[in-house]
Amino acid sequence: MPHQWFKSIKLLLVPALFLLTLAGCGSPSVGETYPLESVSSKDKGQTSRIYRAENKTVPVVAKELADQNQPDEISKEDAEHMFLVYPNEIYHIQQDTAKPTDTLIEVDTKEYVRNNYDSSFLQGYILASVLDDLFDGHKKGSYRGYSNKDIYKPTGTYHVPSADEKKVAPPITTAGKGSIIKRGSTSKNTDSSVGSDGNILKKQVEPSKNSSGKIIRNSSSNSSSSSGSVTPKRSSIFSSPKSNSPPRTKTGGYGRITKRR
């Protein structure tokens, strides 16, 4: 008995640990929390998206995002620039120089960082080992973030996001059609009809076309019933109905009437 309990616990723990592992992968869903403000997209997977967090400081926003999904690396706390490094993206959390009360969240693919950022600028925030793998010894750009894009220009240009680009969060459910299946029926015999108001309790039920009844006359010579009596023919697991012949009397003077069994 204890062995069966341990086996059941293992079967429950394995899927749970798998789901927790998946939840820890990837990047936080910034688009579900903050509005998308600007987009820059080029070929070869170079993409940069800018979100705005109003009236929030850089450390507060960085902590919120890190709590959603633990990054591979997070830079030290800073009031102007912080970085979160994920497997496929780098988050540059920066103070908006035009509006210091707001924080800009720049979500860059690693290809965008490799081809635009100034590696010497990133050395103050990201580990040297990560930078070596990212830049592979090549220094290509002078970019230092969206807040300074007018001074340190990236190779691409930013634009106001289109309606399609704003749809960064996919819908949870999609439209579909359900069906009601009778218990014990095969997959081919389904009944999806419902009432006019959508209530399944008021669905229109049509009589089965495969079922039929038959009435035959009782031709038994031993029966004392009239010639016009009929009995239904049934194909049921239950016993046949009791005889409908007239009751008989028992001698003895009591006048008791009993039903023949």
How would you characterize this protein structure?
- The protein has helices at 2-23, 58-68, 110-116, 119-122, 128-135, 163-166, and strands at residues 36-41, 47-53, 73-74, 81-85, 89-95, 103-109, 180-181, 190-191, 214-217, 230-233, 248-249, 257-258.
- It has a domain at 33-155.
- The protein starts with a helix and ends with a strand.
- It contains six helices and twelve strands.
- By secondary structure, the protein is an alpha+beta fold.
- The chain is 21% helix and 19% strand.
- Residues 159-261 are annotated as: Disordered.
- Keywords: Signal.
- Residues 208-247 have a biased composition (Low complexity).
In short:
21% of the residues lie in helices and 19% in strands. By secondary structure, the protein is of the alpha+beta class.
The secondary structure category is alpha+beta
Q: Uncertain segments of ≥5 residues (pLDDT<50)?
A: 13-25, 171-177, 179-193, 223-227
Largest sheet: 6 strands, antiparallel
Order of helices and strands: HEEHEEEEHHHHEEEEEE
- What's the arrangement of strands in the largest beta sheet? 1-2-6-5-4-3
Number of helices: 6
Strand percentage lies at 15-25%
Mean pLDDT: 74
Helix content: 10-25%
Whole-number radius of gyration? 39 Å
- How many strands? 12
Q: What is the overall silhouette?
A: rod-shaped
Determine the N-to-C terminus distance.
Answer: 52 Å
